[in-house]
């Protein structure tokens, strides 16, 4: 049996470009999909689909802020939420040991206040963001830069060349108080009071460095 399937891509908020899939299986070809209300972000595909009917949400890895789903127009039909028959929830954190993970906003506010209080002590007080993955910290970098007016130092920016929204918040100039630069032995650098980019002092005075390691896994490893 042949069926038409509407595939809708929703922002997943995980790393730049990540999406969630909504599959709507139409029991017959639906001409409305091509009228003037046709949304170009909804790709209509043809699938050989056997058996089930209905709408399926496959999340993939995702990171969404509270209320973000409620604001997704593509999950709504008029004033109501679309009926979804099956959800495939892809998450590392469906485990009792992750009994509480603070929201993205709570984490941002905690980091923001720590960075604000440290960097305001003197120009020599700097923060190293110990970011292990290549992507996924854009929200943090942008908000720190916007709130504190301090750009984030990175080894290179080519990874963001297609993301103009973040380029004005990061810099390759190490003379800044927030660093997310990397070195193969960056933990050793930190223990030696040196930033991964090699900076140890500013205007001849040694730096005072604290490190912040953004991590969700930590919430599953803590003892209480
Ligand atoms: Zn640096």
Automatic annotation (TrEMBL):
<dbReference type="InterPro" id="IPR036866">
    <property type="entry name" value="RibonucZ/Hydroxyglut_hydro"/>
</dbReference>
<dbReference type="GO" id="GO:0000723">
    <property type="term" value="P:telomere maintenance"/>
</dbReference>
<dbReference type="GO" id="GO:0006310">
    <property type="term" value="P:DNA recombination"/>
</dbReference>
<keyword id="KW-0255">Endonuclease</keyword>
<keyword id="KW-0540">Nuclease</keyword>
<dbReference type="GO" id="GO:0036297">
    <property type="term" value="P:interstrand cross-link repair"/>
</dbReference>
<dbReference type="InterPro" id="IPR011084">
    <property type="entry name" value="DRMBL"/>
</dbReference>
<feature type="domain" description="DNA repair metallo-beta-lactamase">
    <location>
        <begin position="165"/>
        <end position="221"/>
    </location>
</feature>
<dbReference type="GO" id="GO:0006303">
    <property type="term" value="P:double-strand break repair via nonhomologous end joining"/>
</dbReference>
<keyword id="KW-0233">DNA recombination</keyword>
<keyword id="KW-0234">DNA repair</keyword>
<dbReference type="GO" id="GO:0005634">
    <property type="term" value="C:nucleus"/>
</dbReference>
<comment type="similarity">
    <text>Belongs to the DNA repair metallo-beta-lactamase (DRMBL) family.</text>
</comment>
<keyword id="KW-0269">Exonuclease</keyword>
<dbReference type="Pfam" id="PF07522">
    <property type="entry name" value="DRMBL"/>
</dbReference>
<keyword id="KW-0539">Nucleus</keyword>
<dbReference type="GO" id="GO:0004519">
    <property type="term" value="F:endonuclease activity"/>
</dbReference>
<dbReference type="GO" id="GO:0035312">
    <property type="term" value="F:5'-3' DNA exonuclease activity"/>
</dbReference>
<dbReference type="GO" id="GO:0003684">
    <property type="term" value="F:damaged DNA binding"/>
</dbReference>
<keyword id="KW-0378">Hydrolase</keyword>
<protein>
    <recommendedName>
        <fullName>Protein artemis</fullName>
    </recommendedName>
</protein>
<keyword id="KW-0227">DNA damage</keyword>
């Amino acid at each position: 049996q042949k069926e038409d399937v509407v595939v809708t891509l929703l922002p997943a908020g995980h790393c730049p470009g990540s999406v969630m899939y909504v599959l709507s299986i139409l029991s017959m070809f639906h001409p409305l999909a091509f009228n003037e209300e046709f949304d170009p972000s909804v790709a209509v595909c043809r699938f050989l689909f056997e058996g089930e009917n209905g709408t399926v949400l496959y999340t993939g890895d995702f990171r969404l802020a509270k209320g973000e789903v409620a604001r997704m127009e593509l999950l709504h039909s008029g004033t109501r939420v679309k009926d979804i028959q099956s959800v495939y929830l892809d998450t590392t954190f469906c485990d009792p040991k992750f009994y509480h993970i603070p929201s993205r906003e709570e984490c941002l506010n905690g980091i923001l206040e720590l960075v604000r209080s440290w960097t305001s002590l003197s120009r020599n007080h700097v923060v190293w963001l110990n970011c292990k993955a290549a992507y996924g910290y854009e929200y943090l970098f942008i908000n720190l830069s916007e709130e504190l007016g301090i750009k984030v130092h990175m080894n290179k920016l080519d990874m963001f060349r297609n993301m103009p929204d973040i380029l004005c918040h990061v810099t390759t100039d190490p003379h800044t108080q927030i660093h997310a630069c990397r070195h193969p032995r960056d933990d050793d650098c930190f223990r030696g009071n040196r930033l991964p980019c090699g900076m140890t002092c500013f205007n001849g005075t040694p730096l005072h460095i604290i490190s912040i390691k953004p991590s969700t896994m930590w919430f599953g490893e803590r003892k209480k």
